[in-house]
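Take a specimen:
=====
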Amino acid sequence: MKGLHVVRLAGGRLSIRIRTRTVWVVGALTVFTLALAVLAVTLGEFPIAPGDVFAVFTGHGSASIQRIVLEWRAPRIVLAILAGAALALSGAIFQSLTRNPLGSPDILGFSHGAYTGALIVMFVIGGNYVATSIGAFVGGVATAAVVYFLSFRNGVQGFRLIVIGIAVSAFLVALNGWFIISVDVNSAISAATWATGSFDLSTWNDVLPVLGTIVVLVPVLAMYSQRLHTLELGDDAAIGLGVRAEPTRLVLLLVGVALVAVVTAAAGPISFVALAAPQIARRLTRSPGTALLPSALLGAALMLGSDVIAQRVIAPTQLPVGIITVIIGGIYLIALLAAQSRKA
């Protein structure tokens, strides 16, 4: 097939198919994300020249510049990259499972469920960052279980899952709003600000749980990636090819929810990255199925780029990154719906 190369390993017993266009897209996205990271670390109320940034990472920078780069800006940049990649992978999972470009954790309600779990810990139970992370994960899993149960009828169909997810999402938005207006003003303002999604005041303590979750779950996703692609053919075809549809779907669903939950706990519910990144990556690579690595890289670039815009668009005032992703995602969603209407 044109543009498709097969690399054989272990004496020909193992082969890997590599698409030339995908390699170019991955390389371009990697370079673009690194360039954005360099730009992000140089911008701010105290601009830093690229040469001074390089000096910091070679151990020759001044103490003040080292503090700005390593303690203030680097955690924010790394968290934005990891959060974007995690959300994009989660979106790729759910869009593949539902076989629908609207099948993302934003639309299905899983992000709102994770936010609900975090609010319950913050306002009702009380706890630190770890407890909030656990609450977000439990809330996301509980929401996924409810949506999955209500959608199950001789298996789970993508369209039914999306419709029920939208309904559950609307309920959770109302519930979260009730939580916020039921607490004192200071807590409500803090929760409402966090709800927009922000990397302000991010530290390495915020980065580590997201990094750890990705390190654990990405190998699991890699193991199930071929089965994920097979499920895109439909349950009957997948079963015929030896894939256990429901157990596989359940594992992938838990992986996707965990990725959303840990980002929600770290930075709040950030919308539309999970919706837009996988589909844009798929169009860039012209892949017939879900492109996981390009999706992750595009999500990282989209999130970091949005955060740079959020910091500088009305500087010195900084906007929450979630506002920028909503604007970008809204434009993408309008374009997607317009494209779908032309096909109808």
The mean pLDDT is 82. The beta strands are 4-9, 14-19. Residues 42-57+79-343 form a domain with the ABC transporter involved in vitamin B12 uptake, BtuC fold (CATH 1.10.3470.10).
